[in-house]
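Kindly inspect the following:
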Amino acid sequence: MVEFTNIKCEAVDKEFCTFEHCQIKSVNRTYKYLSVKAKILQLPITNAKVNGALYQRLNGYKPFLYNITLDCCKFVKNQKSNPVASFFYDTFKEFSNINHSCPFNHDIVLDKLTAESINHRVTRILPFPEGQYMLQLNFNVSGINRVILKIYLALS
């Protein structure tokens, strides 16, 4: 079972974006979801890259399996170009408005990403060992680090 434990959203460049909300909502003991809304202040976005790294907690967070960087604009056009990125993108794409290639002329929203949707992927499709994990996403726009998103979860 996957459980969200924390989420941290940092706008490194506050002139580029701010967060309207960045939270875990707990409906009851077993149903939690993530919601993030980033207000983009410099539109349009025509050149974006993301570095995604997975960490496992073992005396602090240590790199675990994946650390990839990809061009978001090219990846959304051809999602089969990177199977690892596609695995993670498929987890949240139905909950997000990041479903088209560049340019992005709108705010970025991740709405009600449930733990159950992730649970299916990390227990049945590609099993992960039990433990505590952090997914860190660094977003670069026009070659400048703009946003750092950290999602913490426990797998039991």
The helical segments are 72-77, 83-92, 115-125. The chain has three helices and eight strands. The chain has a mean pLDDT of 88. Residues 2-155 form a domain with the Ganglioside M2 Activator Protein; Chain: A, fold (CATH 2.70.220.10).
